[in-house]
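Quick start: what a row looks like.
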Amino acid sequence: MMENEVIKSGLKNSIIVVITQSVSLVLGILKILILPIMLGTTNFGYWQVYLLYISYVGVFTLGFNDGIYLRYGKYNYQDLPKKVFRSSIRVFISIQICIMLIVSLLILLEPDIEKQKALLWASINIPITGLSGVLIYILQVTNQIKKYSIYTILDKIIVLLIIILLFIFKTDQYILVVIVDTFSKVIVLAIMCYSCKDILYGKGINIKTAYKELFENISVGIKLMLANLAGMLVLGFGRFIIERFENVEVYGTYSFALSTINLLLVFISAVGLVIYPTLNRLEEKRYSKYFVELNNIMVIIVFGLLIFYFPLYVFISRVMNEYVQIFEYLPIIFAIIFIQSKMQILINPYYKLLRQEKAMLRANIVGVIIAILIIVPSYLINKSVLMVAIGTFLAMGIRLYLSEIYLKKILSINYKSNIIVEIFGIIIFIFFAYQSNLLIGFFGYLIVFCICLIRNIKTVNQFIRYLF
């Protein structure tokens, strides 16, 4: 009975996340549609440079956030050692500010002035992202999902409202959007600090114990942080290649293609964040059962999400003519949604659940090495963005299924049962997405998906029973 309550609670939290992330998805879509038109290809490219580097500022937390995530994953909010948190967080933020100053000085060596501006604003985000990450992780692991969900969309609402105003006044300066993005994060951080004031303000502990707590969190979390960083590089390495060796317009176009899937991936990743604390409250002997069930329902949902490719194709081809060259590689990039969804919702939570951070790090490093071995030579020979997309797709796919086979061995699950079917499904999607006749592609894939849905109707019914 207790187990069912935990599952229902987890599913309810997932629904809350889905609803709020649906709002976030709509906001993100509006932003993706407005900014390329408002800024033009060059300024949009610089905006994407800012977004690329800001996505990696989390590395400067040194794993402190991840340590909290792993060490306090079974705590309720009221049971957290708040005095210890207060002092260790103060030390942590002091280190973050020092890192920001050092990075800012190094950025001055960048010869491209516009890139230098974008990078400087990204560096300003280091302490902002650091403290925000601490509070967000605390809310996650203590199942404060409503608060977490509100805070993760609030800055998007602020940014979108101001972008609409800039669009109305026909402003095409990317730096204004960068400034707005940064200050929206500051506003949300201030609200979070007030909401979690008992974590941040009040009497702390002595500095020696604070440093001990800091380094314990770092020592536990740094493997997970490095694993997450390597995981990001599997997808992001190709972007760095294009950003460094192509002009900003080509980079902006490729980044726009990635942005179309990032909207869905952020949505999916948010659900994945609920999975770990939910599973962490269940009996260990049931982990294998839930691995299989979670995989089955997730595969159906994500293959359904791939249908969004076809209306997206229509929109871009009719409204955003300057970006039609992305259709050369967009089906490959869109197929990454399936791969990354499994990593975020199933594989990564189980790595953490089984305390396999080292294995997670190894798998992600292998993924990065494969990405480098495929992307670098193929790009140097062909100078083709398509080859970068294919290399990224293959590296992510290999990493996914090596990870799945490894986890299934630990969990004593038949590891060959679903992998061939899933790979076949991805190939079918890519085949239909590349059809010159869009209607044939759409209806062909829709028919295949409906057959898949009918064949797995028991899994769908079981998921619905969990909900109600």
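That is the whole record. The chain has one domain: 2-467. Residues 2-467 form one domain.
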